[in-house]
Amino acid sequence: MGANRHLEDTVTEPAVPDLASLTIGVLGGTGPQGKGLALRWAVAGLRVVIGSRSAERAEKAAAELAELAVSVNPSAEVSGADNHGCAAAADLVLVAVPWDGHDALLTSLREQLAGKIVIDCVNPLGFDKQGPFPLRVAEGSAAQQAAALLPESRVTAAFHHVSAVTLADLSVPKIDLDVLVLGEDRAATDQVRALADTIPGVRGVYGGRLRNAGQVEALTANLIAINRRYKTHAGIRITDLP
Questions:
Q1: pTM of the model
Q2: What is the DSSP letter of 141?
Q3: What is the pLDDT along the chain (242 residues), one digit of tens a residue?
Q4: Beta carbons within 8 Å of 119's beta carbon, 6+ residues apart
């Protein structure tokens, strides 16, 4: 078929990547989405470092998460640092910051994030009297903006549709959800899919290249509208997969 075969044309699944030796960094780890994912990864036995503009705030959040995680998994490990320290210490880095600070933060961390897998889960959304709506992004999506700002990083997009409320509630042992993972680098998307799979009930699903990230980010507006109408914490499932 040739060496230039597209990601989506390849169906053979590789061995599951080993995450045990890696450190997962969460930029924006003091916000609801970042904290929730960090908690679930810590419970799964992964080493997690929380990032924030304030190291003190990050350390406080990390201590709170560690206390919760250890109650389920005594080997859970969570630490805190400022954003630069988090980016430098981590092997895989989740970006879970507000959209209005997205470009400035990533620009400031370009050196620390070079060569690393960066997972962008930012949803550029606006809100008015009619509810949530997707914002227009010049690059096409938050993930594409990240790729443009971080040319030496392996940028992926994932975890856009995970309810922060559900993540934070450890009385919910399994989360009924598929996580769409997008990117240009097959090994990087496989690593992020494996990271999604560490959360019980969650399945990482390859969702295309980064040029398809815009509609994935925008779908969050629909899910928020669903949640408000039906007073739930809806996610997505992809049908007819093995």
A1: 0.92
A2: S
A3: 444 445 444 444 555 688 999 999 999 999 999 999 999 999 999 999 999 999 999 999 999 999 999 999 999 999 999 999 999 999 999 999 999 999 999 999 999 999 999 999 999 999 999 999 999 999 999 999 999 999 999 999 999 999 999 999 999 999 999 999 999 999 999 999 999 999 999 999 999 999 999 999 999 999 999 999 999 999 999 999 98
A4: 92, 93, 94, 95, 156, 157, 158, 159, 192, 195
Q: Give the list of residues 6+ apart from residue 165 with CB closer than 8 angstroms, or none.
A: 32, 36, 233
Per the CB < 8 A criterion, the answer to whether 82 and 90 are in contact is no
- Collapsing DSSP to helix, strand or coil, 47 comes out as strand
Distances (CA, A) of 196 to 38, 108, 143, 183, 225: 12, 27, 18, 15, 24
Among the residues of 73-181, which ranges form H helices? 83-89, 102-108, 110-113, 142-149, 164-168
